[in-house]
Amino acid sequence: MLKIDKFVTLGEFIINRQEDFPYAKGELTRLLSHMSIAAKIVHREVNKAGLVDILGDAGDVNIQGEDVKKLDIFANEQFIAALKTSGECCGVASEEEQNIITFDEKLAKEGKYIVCTDPLDGSSNIDVNVSVGTIFSIYRRISNTGQKAKEIDFLQEGKNQVAAGYIIYGSSTMLVYTTGKGVNGFTYDPSIGEFCLSHPDIITPLFGKIYSINEGNYIRFTEGVKKYIKYCQEYEPEANRPYTSRYIGSLVADFHRNLLKGGIFIYPKTATHSNGKLRLLYECNPIAFIAEQAKGKASDGKGNRILDIKPTSLHQRNSFFVGSFKMVEKAENFIMKIDGNKK
Ligand code: AHG
Ligand code: MN
Ligand code: MN
Hints:
The protein is an alpha+beta fold. Helix content is about 30%, strand content about 20%. The protein has ten helices and 13 strands. It has helices at about 10-15, 25-45, 50-55, 70-85, 105-110, 150-155, 225-235, 250-260, 280-295, 325-340; strands spanning about 90-95, 100, 115-120, 130-140, 165-170, 175-180, 185-190, 195-200, 210, 245, 265, 295-300, 320-325. Strands 2-1-3-4-5-6-7-8 form an eight-stranded mixed beta sheet, sandwiched between helices. Strands 10-9-11-13-12 form a five-stranded mixed beta sheet, with helices on both faces. The longest helix has 20 residues, at about 25-45. The structure holds 2,5-anhydro-1,6-di-O-phosphono-D-glucitol and manganese (II) ion (MN) (2 copies). 2,5-anhydro-1,6-di-O-phosphono-D-glucitol binds near residues 123, 250 and 251.
């Protein structure tokens, strides 16, 4: 890991790398810096979540007489508000909103970008103090500026993303993002209120020793998925197997660990989710963009690249295989050989 002799803040980094972003100077800076402000606010609330007994649970009224919001609702409000004030974003698709949110103010309607977001990923883990995250995906709008954002702006293939990233609220809070010129990670230093470059030019190992899948669904996995899991568990020391099973239940946390150490994350179709559980627009696509930029791979398990999938609805789900290039490739071989290409 490159030793950084002087810390570089997120703001400085974005400005230094403006030429990476092929659009007008300052637009991405404003978008990302507003996202990072919301991230700092959510960081503060996530770190208080453990005090829910004092602060009250969702639906209660806290000691300040304010309604206590579930953290995913709170995070949703913070990121939507931040994007609205950025002046660069004309609309948002959020896991927490059935329909797109369009900003009707004149400045916002001139915004050239739209954002898809999972404001709080892994929310089932909040009350047990396990890492959670926020995921975001940024596109240029297709509809003309000066009018409200349209649904077509959001139903673009993932390969059209101009930027994507996630914030992981873990032992430390990190922001990891790409604009298509590599992946960089920034660790939040609350003492100075800045995200500082801590993981420059992240490349994920071609092979890893970690496989992440919810084996509670094993009985109803397809034969191909079952055989790949057994392959991961076989005693083959010369092939660095058995792998280690690691599953947190927060996509951002599972993906981030595998990105840095090498590994594969799989959420295939299951008995309850015939198309997989993860949502294409604000979970699979942004994570896939980051994975590919870090020299990894992301597909539906049958060789269909996630970023090539044409979305047809805001909340559609997709099977998701993502991580170290050679591990995803191997898993695909099992799926395509044993399950074939049947849907
Ligand atoms: P969210 O909290 O945004 O709904 O996302 C939860 C997702 C994802 O973070 C995680 O990988 C997956 O749900 C875990 O699902 P299972 O509990 O079914 O394994
Ligand atoms: Mn999620
Ligand atoms: Mn969520």
